[in-house]
Amino acid sequence: MHWATRYVGIPYVDGGRDVSGLDCWGVLQLVYRERLKVDLPTYGDISARDLRRIAREIGSASDMWPWADAPVPREMDVAVMAAPGRRFPVHVGVVLRGGQLLHSEAASGCCIVQLADFSVRFRILGYRRYIA
User: Fold this and answer.
1) Domain holding 60: CATH number?
2) To the nearest whole number, what is the mean pLDDT of the chain?
3) Given its phi and psi angles, is residue 9 left (phi above 0), alpha (psi -120 to 50 degrees) or beta?
């Protein structure tokens, strides 16, 4: 069983930062803390709207520490995504082995999908790798 299945089914909670509920930044933060022993910034009690700003910062920071551009994604990279039908970053997810993505949205809660899945493939703007 893949380690990421532990997060599947956790409900979406705006500002959620633990296994009782997670938003997209909460998933990234929890996975990085538990799997990589990296404490990403909390950004305080942040709403999903504010997460758009963070996703934009990560998305535009292709060569800014601690995020580097990752032209070929690998496990634990961050997928920076747009909202459906848009072209600016508002969402993030964690890349898994086998071309999969772990993320959380209001419509699905925390789930794993293929990077090629219709629900995310056209939304992915790029990938970032944590290099600190």
Assistant:
1) 3.90.1720.10
2) 87
3) left
| 46-73 pLDDT tens trace | 565 666 666 666 666 545 668 888 999 9
For residue 1, tell me if it sits in a domain: no
Q: Whose CA is closest to 76, among 129, 117, 120, 121?
A: 129
CB 75 within 8 A of CB 130: no
Its domain, for residue 102, covers 7-130
pTM of the model: 0.85
Number of structural domains found in the chain: 1
Burial 111-130 (b: 16+ CB within 10 A, else e): bbbebeeeebeebbbbbbbb
Structure tokens, 85:
């039908």
In a domain, 63, yes or no: yes
Q: With respect to residue 40, please indicate whether it lies within any of the assigned structural domains.
A: yes
